[in-house]
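Thread: quick sanity check before group meeting

JM: Hey all, I'm pulling together slides for Thursday and realized we never actually wrote out the predicted structure for the chain we discussed last week. Dropping the sequence here so it's in one place. If anyone has concerns about the input, flag it before I start.
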Amino acid sequence: MVSITKKSIAKYLKGFPSEMNRLNTPRKFENAVEKRYNEYLKIYNTSPVKTMTVQIEYSKAGNAKASVRGVRKDGSYFNGSGFSATGSGYNKSIDLLSRVLNTYAKSNLLHKKSLANMEYTDAYNDGCNVPYYSLGHDEIRKGGYLITKTANGSLFEQFEIIFK
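JM (edit): ok, ran it. Output follows.
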């Protein structure tokens, strides 16, 4: 189980002079540590995701919008929308999948025993930062999940994500 403590957050922040310049009073520093710790607790106390379905719709201009439906391991359901990707030069579906995972499934990463060999996570430094998903393929099978494209059309894609 990944554990982040107030002490590890404080140690991490003290290692960055630019952060310490911004947090120049003891109260500002304590508030910053408390805020990061509360964000961690909020994610950690959320039940991990069991499955989710992500639907991506493309406009004729090439912009993409995603919505998500899912089930948590405690049996509760969740829905979400409002994810969008515009512009060109990158894979919009991978970008949207990463953002959906990082919005709804970060608790899955925190409930892992170890992240050392998890290829799909990034930014876990000194027990301070909450790990996040970083994707790079259309169909992904890694340490804790499987993403499968279940529908594909000219203006529509659907992905099923199943967690172990």
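AS: nice. The mean pLDDT is 84. The beta strands are 49-58, 64-72, 77-85, 121-122, 132-133, 140-141, 145-152, 156-163.
JM: adding both to the slides.
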